[in-house]
């Protein structure tokens, strides 16, 4: 029995000294003279496809290299509480869970270089509070989130070189202590230096990395670059330029200011909400409601200068559902900020009406009462609550918000209507009817036959018809790029039937709408059109050029054939006329002698009057030649006579 106990004790001791090692790994124990030691495990089997799970618990250094492991599962190393060095390099890892490094409280160095990581769970660094070195070079990282700076507080060595990074968030430089300390470095104390690897990335040099470029030009700083010769890959004018030679303006995060934080407006009124923002580059403004849904009302934006933009949202004829919080968000490359306006809609309205007429009308229409409070009648008029914010007709209120009502009797001390009061009471309904008639006329105005004519590269002319519309009724012409909610607005009236829209972008699709001022355009009051290309010619001129080319191609062979026939006929005719002329003008020069000879050409011609026309021409030619020869004989002596 005692022998068995001794054997068991020996086996336990042997197990403690020589724990089990994974079959595809090599375990090495580094002992010291004082009896202590550390254990390291190397797993580099090319056939290994998973992270080993039976690694000795006292392992201090674990290396998984040159395998076909594709992912690190959740809590893959949670039992290695003494692990200080974890190298998972040159594998095929593309996925890492956010809790893969759970319980690695004493881990000092993490190397993941040479893998296929397109993203990294930066929040997992919270599980490694003692981590000082992080190597992610030679992966496929394309972005680093802004909140990564919160998890890099203790990192002293970060290598993200040889990835696909084009920029770094400007907030990362502001949050990460090494950068912020470098910006305010002093002579009293020098902060602990951080080694940073950024080389071999396609950096796009704009204002987002302007602070990084400025830091690369400073020698005495808390950040030391592994390779200080960083270069820009874009934009085109800075491609290949070193960081030290690039000059960029710094990004400025947007600053937003609204015209008011709270607004109270009466039911049915028109409200304008304004938002102003500054920043570089010039921020973009977006209006949303408190639930994040976009605002579908008319929005106008304008940038009067670089780094400044304002926006106005128009709420026409507001209802109770329009109340709430409106948020104006400004966004640019440096970040985003927002401001809000709270709109409150109240329904207190004033009107004048006879109480009898009012009660009779409510009973007839089975209407329900608004928030109006009718006071006792004084001199035939009904007075409402003194907290009135707007004035309108009772009929319009009843049309918009019918609610249950009951008749209100005048107070006991009230004054009864006299005989003279009906004239007063009848006067106001007439005015109400006039207002209702005018509103009805405006509402009956229809805009149709909307067309776009004469569009060019940067402008277009919008035409429409508003039949039977009185002059002077305000219209709104709204336009924007197709699919863009923010619209530009042009004010006009029914006295015009067309308007020119300028400042458009060539070869771009636009939407234009024409509607009454204060109303939303209908589907048939909008039209979609496109501007011409910058190099596009006039279509009519293009048609004329094509038609002319076709006509020339058809007519040219006919002209050539016609010219050939005319030339051939002319040559034949010339040949025949040449033969006749040679026969008619032939002269026997051998009859001429060296003596002077005088011939009366006139007598010779008159002697042959009765000859034919051809004979006379022959005689005339002969006479002319004889005359010339005689003239020469009279003036010049023959060289053979002396």
From TrEMBL:
Protein name per the record: Leucine-rich repeat
Biased composition (Polar residues): 417-428
Domain Ig-like: residue ranges: 254-344
Signal peptide positions (record): 1-19
Alphabetical list of PROSITE patterns matching this protein: IG_LIKE, LRR
Record key words, sorted: Disulfide bond, Immunoglobulin domain, Leucine-rich repeat, Membrane, Repeat, Signal, Transmembrane, Transmembrane helix
Transmembrane stretches, start-end: 541-564
Organism: Huso huso (Beluga)
Pfam families xref list: Ig_3, LRR_8
